[in-house]
């Protein structure tokens, strides 16, 4: 294998690198994670979809909606009195495992229908996992937002636990998913690609699915808005923002995946801002509270991702992986400190949201 073909394999097959515990030397090699399968997967021209082609963007719509619903549902399921593990851990672990499977099955998925790969990884897994939610969860531990009966040392331990446990769980889950995909990939059934009518049909249904979130928000009972329907409105815009940042920025810098970093940092800053607006002494209206919750769960939750972040950290070589992980985490905490800290400690807002919902 010559140098050019070796670089091409390292650049495209992130799933194999994760499964075999291999590394890549620069972040530019990870730019293929969010892109649909292409020439690097040895696909014929007829099966290649460009990143910004309409079928790819359309299929991100229902994938984003399903990702948000899965995140909110899973969090509700594992939130109970006496829980042993914080709820977001289940979300991050599940999303990262599916992400590893998707990366490992990129070529078979490309042979079937390329946009399906992007829908599973970028759309569903990216919307299921949330970097901004992780960062806020850690920050809430530092300041003891739950007002638990414990001292500052235990606040510190709680924040460190959520940091380390989430990172280790996410890296292990994405690697396990990629390893499992490596085992089943040779036995993956060679399904016939869908015909033109089916492809056009699924694109139309995808667009109509997202369009249905608007009447769902306005026509369903008002108490559904902060629970789900507001988040569904902002799910696809959040995913699309992250996807565009990834496509345009990830190939630019060798040290870190710049697009993923910017999406995670920007989403964390916005989540902190929305949290401040939800915690003012004079609560905003119920409709505004629902919109803010939708922006937090939908836009910020889908704009930021742990699954792609974990795949990148797990594949980058040595010090670059540690630098990227530490730099991303530190940036998120500093942004929340700058946005939330002065408001909390000056007494202008409360640690707990004051928003009331219908």
UniProtKB/TrEMBL annotation:
One of its GO terms (cellular component) is plasma membrane. It is found in: Cell membrane. GO terms for molecular function: fluoride transmembrane transporter activity. Pfam families: CRCB. It catalyses: fluoride(in) = fluoride(out). Coiled coil: none annotated. It is a multi-pass membrane protein. Belongs to the fluoride channel Fluc/FEX (TC 1.A.43) family. This is Uncharacterized protein. It comes from Piloderma croceum (strain F 1598).
